[in-house]
């Protein structure tokens, strides 16, 4: 995500001709109309002056040629110990004021925390050609220690110059943005001026898909309402600039978000990283009068392909929880709709609000995900152990719609590791089931420390005494067994992996209601918010002994036929052409996996 603060426009206006606004003033600055009342730049000295400014380049100033800077809006994070505030315009940081205004202890208007609008004693008339860049700033005198400077924590080139007592001017634009704006008045204000304020490029571009999604924001800085514009993307390694049109109804001072998908034509992975510039242009209402703020750039990773993402939903629930039946209904209704078949796998841990007779030995260990083992509650859930809230991956959706919105957001994200889950009951020992998980990765590092977890789940368990339930209640997705509480490390053969584990089946479990669910996640025992799942998969008991690779039908095999080798995607490969990797071997009516090293 890239950020770029822009010239903000805030002024009194009234409706004029259709598509226009009768703008009486335009505020020129980088803080986008925001002011901070929490200071982080301070001096404890007494009887000193502190100064700060922003730089507006010549190209932007020229846009306002023929108008005048009438006043300056200066933000103060605190007025404590500040007795004089001087606003000014300069052509050089350490030069003389070419226009100024002030608030003193004797002024009728008093210094305020937040915005202070100070008129210039003599307005600064901007030459028609702009005549170079300008510094717009303010200085204040403090009687004692003060946190007067108001800044935003958004780095902006030219957005923050500071002069502390006894020091030279320092460019601190990499630290933030000064809350100051120069108010421009006149009858020659710009009519067409869009600014690209924010851009987000798709993190990874998959060559096999060929599409790149670009999202961002634009703001109308001029008087004409914009009805449309183009987003032009020029990606390194592509066939050239490609564009997508955005329809708009963007009035003066309004901001709108956009998202477009383009086909940059990248066909070579190269070094894996590509640069791209994003430009807004071809504005329907005419040429942009200040194109200097129309472009942002960034980078994204190029991979040959990605995989479809499935998700694991882990619910925290117990029979002592009176609200748990409500969230259980959300989950069951969503799954019964059919839209999440084979894409969403649910595992229920009976912990979080006390425990019950279905609590597995490892279920309470997962309470660590609640603020690293802090206070817990139920009902609650983790969706791919993804950190939606900012402090913990554990959450409680307030409705089925909200829950499905989170599910859909994760399902829309591509995965960079595949997962196929197979299971078979041991023919010699009918009380054992062996689960095999295999797949491949399309990037070297799918996460910092990948581990694989396998659950054995059971549906259709009658509750003994479920709080909050009227009548009978059935527990589904109950985690009966786990390969390892925190998963096992993955052994890779090139980009491929095969993992197996074994479970003993209890006679108390209803076998037809069992399923095996597996997922790969990032193991981090110090940060509960850094354990995101890379992909998930599962298989139901009815398919345990019939699980075969996609594209291969074991039933077609003849007992006398020679062995046939297939890739994981179902393509047949001659035995003499096998390379390192994982293959499905079909022979004598059966399928099995082999690893060729």
UniProtKB/TrEMBL annotation:
Stretches that traverse the bilayer: none
Entry keyword set: Signal
Domain of life, source organism: Bacteria
Signal sequence coordinates: 1-21
UniProt entry tagged with the keyword Repeat: no
Record protein name field: Omp28-related outer membrane protein
């Amino acid at each position: 995500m890239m950020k770029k603060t822009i010239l903000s426009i805030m002024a009194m206006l009234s409706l004029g001709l259709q598509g226009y606004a009768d703008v009486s003033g335009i505020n020129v600055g980088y803080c986008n109309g925001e002011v901070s009342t929490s200071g982080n730049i301070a001096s404890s000295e007494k009887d000193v002056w502190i100064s700060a400014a922003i730089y507006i380049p010549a190209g932007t100033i020229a846009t306002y040629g023929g108008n005048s800077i009438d006043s300056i809006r200066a933000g103060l994070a605190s007025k404590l110990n500040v007795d004089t505030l001087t606003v000014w315009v300069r052509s050089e940081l350490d030069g003389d004021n070419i226009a100024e205004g002030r608030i003193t202890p004797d002024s009728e208007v008093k210094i305020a925390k937040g915005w202070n609008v100070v008129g210039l004693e003599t307005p600064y008339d901007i030459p028609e050609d702009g005549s170079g860049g300008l510094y717009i700033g303010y200085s204040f005198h403090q009687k004692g220690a003060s946190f007067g400077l108001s800044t935003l924590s958004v780095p902006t080139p030219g957005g923050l110059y500071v002069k502390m007592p006894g020091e030279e001017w320092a460019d601190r634009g990499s630290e933030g943005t000064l809350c100051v704006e120069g108010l421009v008045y006149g009858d020659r204000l710009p009519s067409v001026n869009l600014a690209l304020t924010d851009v987000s490029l798709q993190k990874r571009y998959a060559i096999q898909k060929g599409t790149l999604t670009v999202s961002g924001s634009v703001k109308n800085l001029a008087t004409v309402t914009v009805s449309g514009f183009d987003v032009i993307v020029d990606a390194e390694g592509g066939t050239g600039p490609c564009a997508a049109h955005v329809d708009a109804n963007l009035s003066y001072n309004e901001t709108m978000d956009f998202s477009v998908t383009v086909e940059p034509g990248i066909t070579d992975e190269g070094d894996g990283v590509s640069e791209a510039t994003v430009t807004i242009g071809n504005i329907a209402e005419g040429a942009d009068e200040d194109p200097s703020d129309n472009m942002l750039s960034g980078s994204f990773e190029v991979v040959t392909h990605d995989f479809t993402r499935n998700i694991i939903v882990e619910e925290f629930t117990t029979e002592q929880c009176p609200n748990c039946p409500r969230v259980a209904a959300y989950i069951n209704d969503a799954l019964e709709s059919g839209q999440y078949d084979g894409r969403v796998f649910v595992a229920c841990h009976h912990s979080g609000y006390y425990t019950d007779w279905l609590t597995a030995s490892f279920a309470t260990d997962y309470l660590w995900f609640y603020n690293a083992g802090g206070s817990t509650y139920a009902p609650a859930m983790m969706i791919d152990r993804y950190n939606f809230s900012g402090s913990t991956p554990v959450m409680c959706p307030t409705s089925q719609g909200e829950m499905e919105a989170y599910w859909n957001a994760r399902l829309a994200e591509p995965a960079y590791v595949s997962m196929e889950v197979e299971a078979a009951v041991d023919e010699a020992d009918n009380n054992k089931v062996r689960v095999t998980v295999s797949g491949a990765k399309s990037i070297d590092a799918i996460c910092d420390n990948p581990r694989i977890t396998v659950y054995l789940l059971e549906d259709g368990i009658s509750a003994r005494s479920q709080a909050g339930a009227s009548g009978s209640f059935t527990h589904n997705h109950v985690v009966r067994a786990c390969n390892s509480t925190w998963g096992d490390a993955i052994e890779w053969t090139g980009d491929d992996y095969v993992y197996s584990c074994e479970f003993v089946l209890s006679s108390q479990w209803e076998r037809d209601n069992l399923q095996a669910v597996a997922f790969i996640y990032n193991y981090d025992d110090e940060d509960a918010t850094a354990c995101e799942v890379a992909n998930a998969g599962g298989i139901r008991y009815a398919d345990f002994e019939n699980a075969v690779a996609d594209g291969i039908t074991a039933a077609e095999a003849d007992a006398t036929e020679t062995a046939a080798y297939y890739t994981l995607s179902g393509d047949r490969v001659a035995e003499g052409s096998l390379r390192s990797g994982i293959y499905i071997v079909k022979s004598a009516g059966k399928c099995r996996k082999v690893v060729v090293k």
